[in-house]
Each structure stands twice: as structure tokens, then as C-alpha cells.
Design brief:
The structure is a single chain. The chain is built from eight helices and 13 strands. It is of the alpha+beta class and 300 residues long. The protein has one domain. The strands form four sheets. A six-stranded antiparallel beta sheet has the order 1-3-2-4-6-5. Strand 7 and strand 8 form a beta hairpin.
Length: 300
């Protein structure tokens, strides 16, 4: 274990490789690319952050800002906070700073502490669980569809009914929040002593506010990749493909569309009060409000 002082921590954040992205949205460039890493496991204890050679389990994930895209750390922290405020189960995260460098510190949900001993819990992302290579994590490239995710939950979860509803909420949130990078590796199963459950959500970022990234969602919703073209029939097809009732799914998605704008405004207001808001978050909230208004008309 090596504890990092402020200078060391700033160096670690600065040296994390940046993502090689391009500017042409027609090329379907994504925020996350196979083999590219802007995060690292760390240990956090009593406000100290350290790196471990592997014997000591990490407790957190440190995520650096993504070069060329403004305030990705604030964007992700906001989206996680918004999802939690809407009742979704998310990983806990906080924005930290060191020597003027901002980063996101995400608490690992696949850890259990017993008698001050940290124990790893097994988890599998949906690509791993379905035997899909990580380079094919997007549905267009052979990655898991939402229907395949539903089938996996039904087969593996100790509480499939609850986790299927959580999948519906996740799909709704990703659509409304502009998270177009919600691929098969961003959903996981967590194996705990109480059974297998859908893991808390992580890697929630409004990618739609950034130019140069794909305008298509990572997974189709009822056969449609483009958020602006999702209609009531797509929602009903999504429900049917997942083995769920179209009417209850439509009503559930409508409830989120009706509530998300106000909740997003409240979360942004809380950040303003703490002087933690960023210009990008204004764009995120505006996008959410536009999408929510459209989906309300589509689903009502």
C-alpha cells in the first residue's frame, strides 16, 4: 500500500490515459472505447487515498476528467445524483480536487467490510455474463440488447420482478438523460451473500451534450437507436421484448418523464447553492427538459 500526498495524487490523475476521440458524429464515436482507461482502483480510508499492488482490495474507483470534453466529472456526478434522487440505486460518488485538478471518487459496491476487513464480492457485467467480448459491448456491434438483459435478469436474479422494473427505470433514465453510452458493460450482476441482484448503476454521463460523439443510443429501445424518434410503439415493443406488459411499462416510463425535469432542476439548484454547478450542467438540464416534454406527449 502506498498512500498518496496531494502532489502524488495530482500526478496520478494527470497521467491517466485520455480517450482518443474524434469530431465526426457520423463515425459513431463513443465516450468509452475498448482498451482505453481513464480510471484506476484505489483505497480510500480516513480521507486518505492510496494505491495497492493487489493484495489489499481497492475500495474506490478514481476517475479523471476526459480531455476535450468539458466538466465530465461534474456531468457524471450530477447524473448519478439525479438518478439516486429519482429512486434508482446507484454507486456512491463524490467530486474531489487536488492541486486544482478535479476527479470523481466512486465507492465500489462490490466490497463488504467485516471486522474492518475488506472482502471482494463477485460481480459480472452483462457482457461477461452473456459471453460477449468487451469489444462488442454496443448492441450494433453484437452486444446485449435490452431484451437479452431482461432474459438474464429473469434467469439469474434472486428478485427478478424488482430487477426487471429497475431495468425499465434504467432504460428510461438513459433515454431522458442523454446517456448514449449505456452499453452491455455498464450493467452488472452482483453476487452477495443474500443472492444475485442487479448491481447499482454506474458510469452515468449525459453524452448527448458533447459534440463529436454518437447520436445513437448504445442499445435500441423497441428497435430504435435514435432518442428523438422514440415513439409509443417503440416503448410497447421494448416492453413486449422484455416479457413485460406494455401498459404498465408505458405508465412507469411516463412517471419518470413527468418527474425528471423538476428533480433535475432541484439537484442543479442544490449544486448552485454550494457553488458546485458548472456550465455543462445547464445544457444537461435543458436537454433533459426537452426530452422529458417530448416523452410526456408520446406516452400520455
Amino acid at each position: 500500500m502506498r498512500w498518496l500526498d496531494e502532489a502524488d495524487l495530482a500526478d496520478v490523475v494527470a497521467e491517466l490515459p485520455t480517450r482518443p476521440l474524434f469530431d465526426d458524429p457520423e463515425e459513431d464515436v463513443r465516450l468509452s472505447l475498448a482498451g482505453v482507461q481513464d480510471k484506476m482502483p484505489v483505497v480510500c480510508s480516513r480521507n486518505r487515498i492510496g494505491v495497492t499492488a493487489g493484495r489489499t482490495p481497492s475500495t474506490h474507483i478514481l476517475k479523471a476528467p476526459i480531455e476535450r470534453f468539458d466538466d465530465t466529472v461534474a456531468n457524471e456526478a450530477f447524473c448519478l445524483r439525479l438518478a439516486a434522487a429519482l429512486g434508482l440505486t446507484t454507486a456512491r460518488a463524490e467530486v474531489r480536487r487536488t492541486e486544482g485538478v478535479e476527479f470523481l471518487l466512486v465507492e465500489r459496491y462490490d466490497r463488504e467490510v467485516q471486522a474492518q476487513v475488506i472482502r471482494r464480492l463477485h460481480q459480472e457485467d452483462f457482457c461477461q455474463a452473456l459471453g460477449v467480448p468487451p469489444e462488442r459491448k454496443y448492441e450494433a456491434e453484437g452486444g446485449p440488447s435490452l431484451a437479452a438483459c431482461a432474459d438474464l435478469i429473469r434467469a439469474a436474479s434472486a428478485s427478478p420482478a424488482r430487477d426487471l422494473l429497475a431495468l425499465v427505470d434504467t432504460a428510461s433514465f438513459n433515454l431522458l438523460s442523454g446517456n448514449h453510452d449505456a452499453h452491455g458493460k455498464n450493467l452488472s450482476l452482483l453476487y452477495s451473500p443474500t443472492g444475485v441482484r442487479l448491481a447499482p448503476l454506474y458510469d452515468l454521463v449525459c453524452t448527448a451534450v458533447y459534440g463529436g460523439l454518437s447520436r445513437k443510443m448504445a442499445t435500441k429501445l423497441g428497435g430504435e437507436y435514435r432518442a428523438q424518434y422514440v415513439e409509443r410503439r417503440h416503448v410497447e415493443r421494448f416492453a413486449q421484448a422484455c416479457g413485460l406488459g406494455p401498459a404498465p411499462v408505458r405508465r412507469r416510463m411516463l412517471r419518470m418523464a413527468l418527474s425528471i425535469s423538476g428533480v433535475a432542476g432541484d439537484v442543479l439548484g442544490e449544486l448552485r447553492d454550494k457553488q458546485e454547478d458548472r456550465p455543462v450542467l445547464e445544457r444537461v438540464v435543458a436537454l433533459i427538459q426537452d426530452r422529458a416534454a417530448r416523452m410526456q406527449s408520446v406516452l400520455a
